[in-house]
Design brief:
The complex is a heterodimer of chains A (153) and B (208).
Chain A (H helix, E strand, L loop, with lengths): L1 H21 L66 H4 L3 H5 L48 H4 L1
Chain B lengths: L12 H10 L7 H25 L3 H4 L3 H11 L15 H5 L4 H10 L1 H9 L5 H21 L21 H13 L3 H4 L11 H8 L3
Classes of the chains: A mainly alpha (153), B mainly alpha (208).
Chain lengths: 153, 208
């Protein structure tokens, strides 16, 4: 009885060792999956990403779907958006937008979460750059076949 | 009538000094006295201006914590502190005129700042925030009155190449020139954070 148990345990251990030795090594390039890190081993340091220039077009960027927050086509470096002042609204809020010829902030921004219409931009929409971003001349991180809402149909 | 004049035996201090100065020199030649006078004059004038320039250094300005912790900290995030070319403007470049007469006038006005420093008028962040709009409007007013003289220390408007500017800058600068605007009309907040109520204040009190 003792010898049988010993044989069974020994067989199990041997099988496990065999399977462990023969199984493919799991690493960052397992199969076809590669992380954004690329073919760089964990202890190594890869090349830094390229410096990017902001894409400042005249006119507007095409949006991918109706509700997408429009993207910023001009430079906004150092624009002050804090509790005291919002410099974006200096051109994009009424009545300034008229003389500045800038797109007016959407009416949705004047309604607070209780549906009350306000005379100023509601505080939950105060920090523009949480949703409205400038664009860089950057390549897509991963090759993809993204289609906008218009192209999909 | 009572004779108030002191007798020649015990003259007052002022009289003694005056007599000493008015007497021609017995020991020193005219040339020697002139040379000494010139040297003293140069040292005195140079020393005066050196001391004035000392009060124009960044170190001096931020020796007050009111400046160091508020406006200097904000200025460090702006383009006048660090930029592509490394050409900087420090406190005195924008707030102290370069021409001697205007500079001296500003320095005399600065005694008001010493007074308020002693009082601690903006000694805490809360006190500073409460006065921020007032202080900002003071500076804007004086810049408007001098047609942004300190901006023009470095930024020569007629030497601006519009073709090298962004489209918005091109349009605005051309417009500004036509409408007779000055730098500070549009470029508020270029070096320090804007106070609450800036745009409303500008609407009430002046263009842009």
């Amino acid at each position: 009885m003792n010898r049988l148990v010993l044989v069974i345990i020994g067989g199990a251990v041997a099988t496990a060792a065999l399977v462990g030795a023969l199984a493919p090594q799991v690493n960052a390039q397992s199969g076809n999956v590669q992380s954004l890190r690329g073919a760089v081993a964990i202890p190594e340091q890869g090349p830094p990403p390229d410096l990017k220039k902001q894409n400042t077009t005249s006119g507007r960027f095409n949006r991918a779907y109706r509700q997408q927050p429009p993207m910023v086509p001009h430079k906004i470096d150092h624009y002050q958006i804090d509790l005291r002042v919002n410099q974006c609204l200096r051109c994009h809020d009424w009545p300034y937008n008229v003389e500045e010829n800038a797109p007016k902030v959407s009416e949705t921004h004047y309604m607070n979460r209780d549906g009350v219409a306000l005379d100023h931009v509601t505080r939950s929409r105060w920090f523009c750059t949480q949703c409205h971003v400038p664009q860089d001349n950057a390549r897509p991180l991963v090759r993809n076949q993204f289609k906008s809402a218009v192209e999909v149909e | 009538m009572i004779d108030h004049r002191k007798s020649d035996d015990s003259p007052g201090l002022l009289v003694r000094v005056w007599r000493g100065l008015a007497r021609p020199s017995a020991r020193y030649s005219l040339g020697y006295l002139l040379a000494v006078g010139v040297v003293v004059g140069v040292v005195g004038w140079g020393g005066f201006n050196w001391a004035m320039e000392l009060t124009n250094t960044e170190t001096f300005c931020i020796s007050c914590h009111e400046m160091r912790d508020n406006v200097y900290a904000e200025y460090k995030e702006t383009i006048h502190y660090a930029n592509r070319t490394g050409v900087r403007a420090i406190c005195s470049d924008c707030h102290v005129p370069k021409e001697w007469v205007h500079k001296v006038v500003r320095k005399v006005q600065a005694t008001n700042e010493l007074y308020h420093w002693a009082l601690g008028t903006i000694g805490t962040p809360e006190k500073f925030e409460a006065k921020r709009l007032t202080l900002a409007r003071n500076v804007w007013r004086s810049m408007k009155r001098t047609d942004s003289r300190e901006c023009r220390n470095c930024h020569e408007f007629d030497s601006m190449d519009f073709t090298l500017q962004q489209s918005r800058a091109q349009i605005r600068h051309a417009e500004g020139k036509q409408e007779g605007k000055t730098c500070i009309d549009c470029h508020k907040g270029i070096a320090h954070r804007l106070p609450a109520g800036t745009f409303e204040s500008a609407q009430r009190n002046g263009p842009r």
